[in-house]
Amino acid sequence: MKKYFEPSELIINDDNSVFHLHLKPEELADKVILVGDPGRVPTVAAHFEEKECDVENREFHSITGTYNGKRITVLSTGIGCDNIDIVLNELDALANIDFQTREEKDQLRMLDIVRIGTCGGLQETVPEGTFIASVKSIGFDGLLNFYGGRNDVCDLELEDAFIKHMQWTGNQCIQHPYVIDANAELTERVAGDDMVRGITVACGGFFGPQGRELRIPLADPHQNEKIMSFEHKGLKITNFEMESSAVAGLSRLLGHRAMTCCMVIANRVAHRANTGYKNTIDHLIQIVLDRI
Ligand code: R1P
Ligand code: URA
User: Fold this and answer.
1) Cα–Cα distance measured from residue 30 to residue 39, given in angstroms and rounded to the nearest whole number
2) CATH 3.40.50.1580 fits domain 25-291
3) What does R_g of the chain's alpha carbons equal in angstroms?
4) Nearest listed ligand to the Cα of residue 273
5) Which of 49, 177, 259, 280 gets the highest tally of CB atoms within 10 A of its CB?
6) Ligand 1 pocket by C-beta < 6 Å: which residues?
7) Mean pLDDT of 259-282
8) Would you list the domain boundaries of the chain?
């Protein structure tokens, strides 16, 4: 029996577009670039030779077009993994659910999804301007813990090692972290020779969860020191951002290939930040467009 999705579970707008993204099934390409900042969407699409649709709703701005003959959809997710839950589920619905019958399709499509983001560097070796490919992500956001099959796709050995290393007790930083791999083939192709490979911690916030203390003290004042000293099978934690774990995790569970690459805009060891990054992220965009 085919799976049927009720109107309350998969919400479809009157114009046959999906509830939040406002995209229609025929408007989605197999290659998808996700960016956080809606302002980054026109920057990516400026490289397209043709545009076939340009749709906006809330923080979700999508443009589908072609780059060197490749059909690509670029879409903004806004900030945070809660939006990634919406974006990944709606992208998959556009690809793999028939909007007329509300049933899962017989032939499932696999999307190649690359997130181009910004991040905070956690080692001296990744100064501002470095491109980092997240080989693995540690999700502090808790999202994957709500989905069945989570333990089948997560790196439970690294999860255990990380939890022991952090020595959190009681309700300190309570979400159970999950550890998820990016798609290895896509990561190799997109990261090439010019990106640093590392473990990324994806946080459910920019301040406390990333160990930034303004006027509220942190639950664990030693959080970042411990994160920076963690090492597993030769890999160190290189950076903080806020979406890679949810992108990799939901893509794995849905049968899509995903990876995240970010440009470092702040280095937490050197205590420096580059606020002029919007002028330089185009180089990373160009690399991804050529390799996706
Ligand atoms: C925080 O400033 C935002 O920047 C990073 C984080 O993941 C978070 O979304 O990514 P983007 O530049 O893609 O938004
Ligand atoms: N994005 C983040 O999530 N953290 C940083 O430090 C910089 C960009």
Assistant:
1) 22
2) yes
3) 19
4) 2
5) 259
6) 35-37, 79, 117-118, 206, 241-243
7) 95
8) 25-291
